[in-house]
Design a protein that fits this description.
There is one protein chain. This protein is α+β, with helices and mostly antiparallel strands. The chain has a domain at 6-218: putative glycoside hydrolase family protein from bacillus halodurans (Beta-galactosidase, Chain A, domain 5, Distorted Sandwich). The protein is 31% helix and 22% strand. The termini are far apart. 54% of the residues are buried.
Amino acid sequence: MNGNRISDYGFLADGLTGALVGRDGSVDWWCPLRFDSPSVFARLLDDGGGHWSIRPEADFEVERAYLDETLVLRTVFTTGDGAVAVTDALALEPGARGHQIGRRSPGMLLRTVEALSGRVPMMMSFAPRFEYGRVTAYLTVDGQEVTATAGAATLTLTSSAPVHRDHIDVSARFTVEAGQRESFALAYSSTYGDRDRRPADTDVPAALLDAVAGWRSWLANHDYRGRYRDLVRRNSLVLQGLTYAPGGAVVAAATTSLPERIGGDRNYDYRYAWLRDFSLTMRALWVAACPDETSRLFDWVAKSVGRVTMAPVPIMYGLEGERDLTERSVDTLGGYAGSKPVLLGNAAWRQRQSDVLGEVLDSAWLLRDYLNPMDESVCRLLHSLADQAAATWRLPDSGMWEFRDTERQYVSSKACCWVALDRAVRFGERIGSRADVARWAGARSDVREAILEQGWNADVGAYTGAFGSDKLDASVLTLPLWGFLPATDPRMRATIDRIEQDLTEDGLVRRWDGDPAAFLPCSFWLVDCLALAGEHERATRMFESLVGRGNDLGLFAEQFDPRTGEQLGNFPQALSHMALINTAWRLTETAPGGVPAGVYTSTEGEKK
């Protein structure tokens, strides 16, 4: 296996897809067409999966950071001979600015090497492996241009340094002296189609500057003014990087099959958009971005969900609303640290998860002022989701954690059905008749009564994960976040205390007893609950400790192993970053003295 851990990777994005670059200067993951398309580099999951590496020949130390307010990465390698800076980015469409960035990106990786001091020998290795390592490309070298073709896909590499063919791969060795720079561009295109841009025609330093200007122009449209301003703005860039710009869908992560436990088999494909995360995503974008992003994402959901019947609403979709995400394994990749299987697609798309009903209606409530007047198709969608919640809330489901063994009566799912009905009642006759609203209100009362009676376990002294269960589950930390119960309610407070006592280690919360690692979003939810319970100072300390557990670029996977300190799971994980943003805002709202004047309140979706 290559020497990079999950936390060693930096994230590049262009509005269509993402790439991961290790601390050793190797691009080990890139699916050029869009996030869920076949890879050309997948060494992240197997040494033979393909990579593109640029690094010093000698041993080196590394410092790296994103250029301010961008997803353009600068890595400084220091050797005994001197220091060089490698700058990496995925190109944006030339001249695209603000909300237009990423809509028509050219599919090109840009890299420059600049000597900062001394005289540093460098080496480059270009080893593409198409379709998750299934295909070794046919290579041609013409001067300093390399073409790698495999079926319908072609990669074209241009290098300012001389390149050499090494059997099935290409390498280069070159030396840079202080003030000298070498440039590289790698473009993806269809073998049988027209190429929008050839890398030979690209001024790489100028294209990098354009990418910098594009990202900064996007962030300039968003002025978060709560606590932890720089942190929230940085994390909003990560969420924007995980956004498929043509439609507005936010992928759960840029990768597939990074394990929840080393050697385990819970290695799922997260390169899709989950309704489960929808309301949390909307709130994070509302806090850190602006209504343009939230409105576009809601429009994508409305189009993707379409007409709702009593059949389960799909919990996830492809980036353009595709529903069939049939799961299959890849036998050409051995998995991260030998963790098999490597999976494409996700079988959870067939599950019933009742929480998605509340996710969509809560998001609509957040945007209610921007849905006025409400389009008839949106009105029908919200009406039908409320009807489904009223009719099906008693049914078991697979729950927030997508268990694949059996369906249960999960408390968090029931609470989200309550959310769906509660927001529908608040919308009132904007989405239904007076009789509909009365029916939804009656079902809302029934759901609430069931949760309060059947979700509470007196022997455990807490709300447990499912009706009749004696097992704690951190998903119930969302009850105060949805507004179902105040964090100060005696039973809810007892539940928070039990979860902190039994599922938490060093501020990191496991989803359930026996979970192989802590789940970072749950850890942020615990901070939310403590802040809502009035323990603002302790919540602040815990939040700042959690934030410090990101990698050197502030990126998070979904899980964290308290024993080894390693991040685990797909990366970067949108849910972790949106939870961080929402918790930063929660600490702003609950701070002594309240929200400063002139700052909008995301909870009610209104700007002051």
